[in-house]
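Components:
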Amino acid sequence: MSLRIYAIAYLIFLYAPIALLPVFAFNDATIIAFPLSGFTTNWFGELWTNTSLHTAVKNSVFIAVMTAILSTLLGVCAARAGAMAHFPLKAGIMGFIMLPLVLPEIIVAVSLLVVVVQIFDLGLSNWTIISAHVLICTPFCIAILNGAFQNLDPSMEEAAMDLGETRFGAFRSVTLPLVMPGIISSMLIAFTISLDEFIIAFFLSGVSPTMPVYIWGLLRFPASLPVVMALGTILVALSILLLTIAEILRRRGMARAGVADKGGFL
Amino acid sequence: MLKRRNISESQRSALLISPPFLYALVLMAFPLAAIFLFSFWTQDFMDVDTTFTLDNYREIFEKPIYGALLQRSLFVSTCVTVVTVILAFPVAYFVSFHVRAERKSLWLFLITIPFWTSYLIRVFLWKVILGFNGVINTGLINIGLIEEPLTFILYNVNAVIITLAHAFAPFAILPIFVALEKIDRSLLEAAQDLGESKMMTFFRVTLPLAMPGVVAAVLIVFIPTIGDYVTPELMGGAGGKLIANMIQTQFLALNNAPLGAALAIVAMVCVTAIALVFVLLNRRWLRGRS
Amino acid sequence: MTALITLEGVNKHYGDYHALRDIDLTIDEGEFFSLLGPSGCGKTTLLRTIAGFESVSSGLVAISGKDMAGVPANLRPTNMVFQSYAIFPHLSVADNVAFGLRKRTDLNKQAKEALVADALDMVGLDGYGKRAAHALSGGQRQRVALARALILKPKVLLLDEPLSALDKKMREQMQVELMRLQRHVGITFILVTHDQEEALVMSDRIAVMFEGHIGQLADAETLYRRPRNRQVAEFIGKMNFLEADVTAMGDTISLQVQGLGGLQITPEQSPEVSEAGQAVVGIRPETLGILFEGETTDRKLAEGVVDEVVYYGDMTYYDVRITGVERPLNIAMKNIIGQPVLDVGAPAQVIWDERSLVLLK
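Structure:
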């Protein structure tokens, strides 16, 4: 039916640019254009030897890991509080915490730049980027973890306490195992967002750039474009892998709790 | 029954919410207040003069370039929003109404994956696709459909719109999907049972009920696109730069943080105003129907 | 019977809301005790107060003579079966049942396994140990919840509306099961329910609660035959009400009852009316009868017309409008061979006896 055709065409439109990455990453030409020349793995080889790239990658990974851990922690607090009893201004506070979702990143970047550099006269470093990334990732983590926490029967922790556990022990032995897939999903997604994030990193980078900022630098030089394609191929493949894992875990988490899958982490 | 639940549980949840809340307060509310403050100051190279002044705002209103940029930015954001939401709606509808329950999350997963990959790289790929020697042009020339490369698809506003529509597509699909899922299917059956055709059922029942999702989609696309800086920088050419690029320039290249801050505030105010107007009009439309 | 649980002057406030008002009761060892009442009456709150999930605003909660103030739920000699059963879905049935034994260092693995097997056997789930807990039916989950609680040999088992999520047949089956289990284990059971039939069937004593206080605390028969006030009378079973005028109080009470005329009752039949004036008389449907053709009786009769007939298989319920009374009386008749089922509109003679009346405000 025509809607299905439309939907599939839409998917093709979504994936078309990404599909080009491997095509030109293995293409033996310095210009990204048709017709294709031969097959080569030179560009990947160049990635391997580029040390400034390696530094940038290490930077990005460090930032992404810290972001993932911190935003998941905050997300767990918020999601758990969200699933519990009402407190004054609950809706307002939850909405406020989710606000970064609709804030343009440039506003976040610029306002933090002002505070850190102009007001407090601190240097920019990886930690400035981490704090900004945690701000924008936490709402995503909350969205994922909300699903996990809301599927829980609130009596279960009470039952564990009734059977002898302390409050924290009940959380650890009953709630945590059940939300663990959600926690891992949340960490993977925060990691992915942070790894790819450009605007904030660009504004708040200290001495050493993150990987997207480094790529931005490369884009100025036409000769380096195929290398960017190769790097892009790897990044996209990595992102897809991480997200697939996150999705599998999310589904498994729901199966464990015996809940029907209603579609995505919504 | 919920009212009777523990007061101490309420206290505990208030305690739990404080770390994320305080974090957002310190890292979002406070910096936003800071740039608001900054917009009333002036900067000369590295020194900041903290005497209160409206000079920055005056400059923005007087020099035509800022107004023009803002207008262009709002125009682009609106176009992107309209295009994206309209294209997204049928997809969301399809997944909600025409896909089996077990397959829905697979479709959503497929739709959102491109979003999770590097934004920078995706924008760059569009540049590659739309460029003078890019994929579309060389491809079409190769096949023989055109002789000269198309020039209207890059380094202007059109390119920016296409790229952003692609980037924000999943942002639009998801809220609409959620709203459509919430619609009680028996309402639609009841409408048809009472004599409405499928088309009329859609316009009189489905669409109004899906409106909250559409509104959310509009806001989630419109507001962040004002702040997009990468796409206009890479694709916009001279005529395609947007307000975010100017903000970036003021902050980094020109060392004029107060002016940049004022621009940011003006942009935010415009966007918020438009968003509010949209939401209110929408409510009025919905109320008028019932 | 020794008192196991004592509540004295217990009050509970949630902000402005007064959930429990001056509750005084004692529950004995080995008793099957029920807290019965409509939604919002405070019965679950009271149960949770005994369990330790809610603290009291004032008053004493004591178990085995020890004041439980400040004692958290995990340290009390009580265990609870929750309304949703709260089975841990990520554990097997055996791991669920053994959950409370985790801290017991005095038991080795084999001892624990033996206890689990015994507990499962006791609730009729032997062999289910290895199953995944989330794949069980409602009734099975409840049994797991019971086993999980009873394995810890608590002094009191608390049950929060355990049967409300089951279908009718399952419910009836579990009622019998729970009674059998309680006799077998011999400990005190405290059951919370809004279903008065359930409470009447299973309990030794019942506390009927309304809006935070206890309306009446008695065994099933007393509650049914001698409700202390109108609220209790209306809540337990079905009750017909007739306007009455008390003309004399003394060793016997004289009344004029709407539709039945003048009659006399004993003071025991009047739990709350102590002076002459307007009152109401309550009559249970099964204490009324219909005189069929060919039968005789030495009891009193009232003329009436059949208004509604509801056939239940073993019983037929008639609504009969007697002369002088606008609202029909509900009469429960056992279907006996030889007695036809009357039609709507047919005349009927209602048999009644003043000994089955109860006088209320």
